[in-house]
Amino acid sequence: MPSAEDTSVHQERADVRPTHQDEVAAAGSELIGGRSGRWARLGSTVLTPVGAVALVAIGMFALGMVQKLPCYNWAWFRGAGSQYTHACYSDIPHLYSGRGFADGLVPYFDRLPGDMQFLEYPVLTGVFMQVAAWLTPGGSLQEQEQAYWLVNAGMLMICTAVIAVCVARTHRRRPWDGLLVALAPAFALTATINWDLLAVALTAAAMLMWSRSRPLAFGILIGLATAAKLYPVLLLGPAFVLCWRAGRWRQFGAAALGAAGSWLVVNLPVMIFAPEGWKKFYTFSQERSIDFGSFWLVITQRTGDSIDVSTVNTVSTLVTVGLCAAIGVLTLTAPRRPRFAQLAFLVVAVFILVNKVYSPQYVLWLIPLAALAKPRWRDFLIWQACEVLYFLGIWMYLAYTTSGDKHQGLPTEGYQLAIVLHLLGTLYLCAVVVRDILMPERDEVRRDGSDDPSGGVLDGAEDVFVLAHLVESGAARRDAAEAEGPRVEWGSAGAPAAD
């Protein structure tokens, strides 16, 4: 019977190490001693790969907080321009007073002064914001706003640790892929701009539950994530199509019921007792005009023509539905059933690319999905470089628009280039994911013989419905005909020619 030490060694050998497969990871490891540095033996006895990934993620989050120091110390409180030129803007301190938390107003139930009327965030995010407000100590308004940002940063740091751990554990044999999340520069830069990490953490936990064949828990977490942000509900689409191909309808039913139930548990009390406040998020999303970061903004700025909001909503919805349908067809015709993480990344990327607004923190939605869908450092870093350039571009553009005659910052044409870079970077990563689906032998995750480590009950399942079966049966008939005898074709002179 093997000892615990032998089992540990066997498990360590079973883990896929990116420094032995990825040339960029191998080159980067030289900074810490190469593929197996002098601290490797000591580190393996102190930290597991998951623990190491979590610590790195927390460290990078802390560096992101340090990057916000100019704003924390003074720029948030001395006009708009400085927080843009220092690229340290955050919604959190401004909305503390702007959404009534400083005055003790209750989200969704108490009407706000001004045009906003009610908090424009989903219910679970509103609860998160309110809890942080309860934990914020008193003092001057500036001191309260600083403390509110710190309290939220602490809560969002917990979300970051959850994300890192869940991503590292989703692919059992690839825990080090979590470093893609932990070391993502766009993650550190955007983590404390808004409250998106709550939904991202719940979504990452849902992905982990799906990989562990727990569809009901997956659905419950997706429902909670959707109660914090709208995009996680999109993951039910890939689950549906993959379960269709594998014939696992019971598992999808459990996921769908779990999602609907948990979403209702969170939303129903507010829907009943504060219906106007509850629907503000949805009406605001529908009525919101074309905003920063979208290709719609580039079109309107380049042409000088405005586009009606209803037209944008209709076209965006139709294009999103059409592209998601194309992803569904791809899933049902691919030579091998795609991995769940690949499809999850694609549908969320489609939503982001077509949307009428792209706030810089939206990149957080994609980072964990990208790490699971395409765990290759070169492709990931190309995309991250585009996102960091967009992060700098939007703040420099806002600095330009708020600097008056000084024209400090990035002019409109430069900002449009930043938007295009963001779009191209995301499209590039989508393209390599689609290539891996069409050519599964190029997929890093499957090189060790794995099927779908993030797929749970779908991992290794037989296909029961594939649209390509007609093509396959046609090929089989041709093979059978050839086996019966030589195929006769007609030559150019009109005489039969044996093949």
TrEMBL record:
Membrane topology: Multi-pass membrane protein
InterPro entries membership: GT87, UCP010361
UniProt KW keywords: Cell membrane, Membrane, Transferase, Transmembrane, Transmembrane helix
Location of the region described as Disordered in the Swiss-Prot/TrEMBL record: 1-20, 477-499
Presence of the UniProt keyword Iron in the record: no
One Pfam family cited in the UniProt record for this chain: GT87
Protein origin, superkingdom: Bacteria
Subcellular location: Cell membrane
Keyword set includes Transferase: yes
Regions that span the bilayer: 46-66, 147-168, 180-210, 216-242, 254-274, 340-359, 380-398, 418-438
Basic and acidic residues bias spans: 7-20, 477-487
Family: Belongs to the glycosyltransferase 87 family.
Protein's name in the database: Glycosyltransferase 87 family protein
Species in which this protein is naturally found: Streptomyces castrisilvae
